[in-house]
Design goal:
This protein has 352 residues and is of the alpha+beta class. It has helices spanning 45-53, 95-99, 101-105, 110-123, 139-151, 169-186, 197-203, 221-226, 231-237; strands at residues 4-14, 20-30, 34-38, 60-65, 68-69, 80-83, 157-161, 189-194, 206-211, 214-219, 241-249, 252-255, 258-261, 271-277, 283-286, 294-303, 308-313, 318-323, 332-336, 343-346. Bound molecules: adenosine-5'-triphosphate (ATP).
Length: 352
């Protein structure tokens, strides 16, 4: 257990008179990890972050910080700092006064504060902004000041609640890269909350997918994307084709009356399962080129910048297929799949 900076054990939360919003949450967080809590609005991400920050308390369960029980410790005494979505800067203070706020309270020497503020401004790429009014800054600049204000306290863990949510797409992308760089540079543990799956996949070492207060899957971005545990994760993480099938035996699955080789085993024989197929994993070709396992008609084509998205209607369903090659509407096409592109999931835990 030594390597974990935070351990969350069987944590549940029910607000008075309400339904449970966190159900038996267990997460182990390593030192220097960039971990993201991902899920749709209302799934309990912020509530978990608030409990970690000391702004709220769990109903049951335990949190350990560096192997010590974290209980009854007020927010300002925790080695955690929080950055919220709304920057919550003090409008009547300039940039320096905002960043220095925590150190001024601790009565740190003025020269030390000056040096540290300069260090922080360089870290967030805002050198020379010392005397600017915060109200004169853009959204992105304000958010960077909020991050600098949290980091100057040298927290061991930074909690970030949708910190990029209010920024436009381009700024958001560049801030994602900057934040990740800062995290690596300082070696701080980041616990990041977002409902944006792309953001989670880009930035994190580990992603925790939530639905209705329950963890659906914990894993690296690659694992979560390639090996989703259930249909909810598959769908939430990226556009997918999700269908029912039968696992005939290890490494052999059947759907839409066709048998396919796959790389999964251990589901038993003749077992109903769910299958996820990513749109980019199909091989698509003109039907005349070779005999395909599945045959369909192109019903819609949309250009998406790098690839074409096509709806292919087969005898049993409509698949979403991505390809850099365009097949025109009404073309009769063949579809095929490599074994590793068919992901098998247990049935039953999809809607829970
Ligand atoms: P979002 O992405 O929209 O911020 P979230 O995943 O962070 O959502 P939470 O803010 O944690 O979700 O909310 C989880 C559930 O708990 C919601 O149904 C919310 O209405 C409820 N909730 C949050 N705070 C309180 C509170 N103080 N009292 C009662 N219910 C609350």
């Amino acid at each position: 257990m030594g390597d974990f900076i935070i351990r969350i054990e069987n944590l549940s939360k029910t607000f008075e008179g309400g339904e449970p919003v966190l159900k038996n949450v267990t997460i182990n967080i390593k030192k220097n990890e960039f971990i993201t809590l991902l899920g749709p609005s209302g799934c309990g991400k912020t509530t978990l972050l608030r409990i970690l920050g000391g702004f709220d308390e769990q109903t049951t369960g335990k949190i350990y910080f560096e192997n010590k029980l974290l209980k009854g410790i007020p927010p300002y005494k925790r080695k955690l700092n929080t950055v919220f979505q709304k920057y919550a800067l003090f409008p009547h203070m300039n940039v320096t006064e905002n960043i220095a706020f925590g150190l001024n309270i601790k009565k740190v020497h003025k020269d030390t504060i000056k040096n540290k503020v300069a260090q922080m401004l360089s870290l967030v790429n805002l050198q020379g902004f010392e005397d600017r009014k915060v109200t004169s800054l853009s959204g992105g600049q304000q958010q960077r000041i909020a991050i600098a204000r949290a980091l100057i306290n040298e927290p061991e863990v930074l909690l970030l609640d949708e910190p990029l949510g209010a920024l436009d797409l381009k700024l958001r992308k560049s801030m994602q890269i900057e934040l990740k760089k800062i995290q690596k540079q300082l070696g701080i543990t980041f616990i990041f909350v977002t409902h944006d799956q792309e953001e989670a996949l880009t930035m994190s070492d580990t992603v925790v997918v939530f639905k209705g207060g329950k963890i659906q899957q914990i894993g690296s971005p690659v694992d979560i994307y390639n090996e989703p545990d259930n249909a909810f994760v598959a769908n939430f993480i990226g556009e997918s084709n999700i269908l029912s099938g039968i696992m005939i035996k290890d490494f052999l699955v059947k759907f839409d009356e066709v048998e396919f080789g796959c790389v999964d085993a251990g589901f038993g024989e003749n077992t109903m399962i769910d299958i996820v197929i990513r749109p980019e994993d199909f091989q698509i070709f003109m039907d005349t080129d070779k005999v395909a396992k599945l045959q369909g008609i192109v019903k819609r084509v949309t250009f998406k910048g790098v690839h074409y998205e096509m709806e292919i209607k087969t005898k049993f369903r409509t698949f979403i297929v991505h390809s850099t090659k365009m097949f025109p509407v009404e073309a009769i096409v063949g579809l095929d799949l490599n074994p590793e592109d068919i992901h098998i999931m247990n049935k039953g835990d999809n809607d829970e």
